[in-house]
Specification:
This protein is mainly α. The chain folds into two domains: about 50 residues, Homeodomain-like (Arc Repressor Mutant, subunit A); about 140 residues, Tetracycline Repressor, domain 2, CATH 1.10.357.10. It is about 80% helix and about 0% strand. It has nine helices and no strands. The N and C termini lie far apart (about 55 Å).
Length: about 200
């Protein structure tokens, strides 16, 4: 990566970091683009060159997690563990992420739902990325004999994605405390592992 590209990447990260802090402290509506530019140490023009609107900032923040977590699922496939252990790790990591960034996620994801709305293509791309990652995990599990083979992989992958996404949206509820979220994710992982196990 050249110096120019590195500088652009650094500026982008500064903007996203400043935005995350502002959104956490002031909420989406309470944050102005001018505030973000000032906190990031960039001009208003520079900010708008990177992100024309707050909606674009939210999309960039969500995209970062949505790209990284399927890769985390794939990485777990190469660990010397059972499918049950891999699922426990995956769901635990998701719970930790959302409890660490709870205030920010409480702002981002309702806005993300509004922004994407009927954007079927964007939603489908996210779903497909998770389904593909879970399908790889399932195949590894079948190869090692701890995932059932009597149900199609795409159906099982849909089940895993549904459980994970339900857990993520549960994490947005203000009534849920950190320990409740982590316990719920652990239960989802255990239930999924039980459902995936070969019938006796």
């Amino acid at each position: 990566m050249g110096l120019r590209e590195e500088k652009k990447r650094h500026t982008r990260q500064q903007i996203l970091h400043a935005s995350a802090q502002r959104f956490s402290d002031r909420g989406f509506e309470g944050t102005r683009m001018d505030d973000i530019a000032r906190d990031a140490g960039v001009s208003r023009t520079t900010l708008f060159n990177y992100f024309p609107s707050k909606d674009d900032i939210v999309l960039a923040m969500a995209s970062s997690f949505e790209q990284q977590f399927p890769e985390r699922i794939r990485a777990s496939c190469h660990s010397p563990a059972s499918t049950r252990e891999r699922l426990a790790d995956i769901f635990r990591e998701a719970a930790h992420y959302f409890t660490r960034h709870r205030a920010l996620n409480a702002v981002i994801y309702p806005e993300l739902t509004r922004i994407r709305g009927g954007r079927d293509r964007s939603n489908r791309q996210v779903t497909d990325a998770y389904r593909e990652a879970f399908t790889e995990l399932l195949q590894i599990g079948r190869d090692q004999g701890d995932v059932r083979s009597d149900i199609a992989s795409d159906i099982l992958a849909d089940m895993l994605w549904s459980a994970l996404s339900t857990g993520l949206y549960r994490a947005f509820g203000e009534h849920d405390k950190k320990r409740d979220i982590e316990a719920a994710f652990a239960d989802y992982a255990r239930l999924m592992a039980d459902a995936l196990a070969p019938p006796r």
